[in-house]
Amino acid sequence: MKSEILYPGAFPMVRVELAEGEHIKAESGAMVACSPTIDIESKMEGGFLGALSRKFLTGEKFFFQTLRASRGAGEVLLAPTVPGEIVVLELDGVSEYMVQKDGFLAGADGVTIDSQMQSMSRGLLGGEGFFILKMSGKGMLLLNSFGAVHKIELKPGQEYIVDNSHLVAWSTTTTYNIEKATSGWVASFTSGEGFVCRFRGPGLVFIQSRNPGGFGAWVRQFIPVTE
Amino acid sequence: MTEFHPNALCFGEEFPATGAPCLVHVEGHGLTVTVLSDADAGERRSESVPFSELTVSAGGLDHDQLVATWRGPTGQRTLYLKNPDVIRAFRQGAPDHLTIPLERAAEQVRQVRQRHRMVWSIVGGALLASVLGLWFGSDRLVELAVDRIPIEWERKLGESAYYDFLARQEVMKDGPAVTAVTEMTHRLTDPIPKNPYPFEITVVKSDVINAFALPGGYIVVFTGLMKKAESPEEVAGVLAHELNHVLQRHGLERIVKQLGFVAVVSIVLGNPPGLGGVMKQLGVELMTLKFGRAQEVEADLTGLQLLHRAKIDPSGMITFFQRLAEKDQGRVEWLSTHPMSSARADRLKVELADMPKQIPEPFTFDWTKVRATLGGHAGGSP
Question: Which ipTM value was assigned to this complex?
Answer without folding.
Answer: 0.78
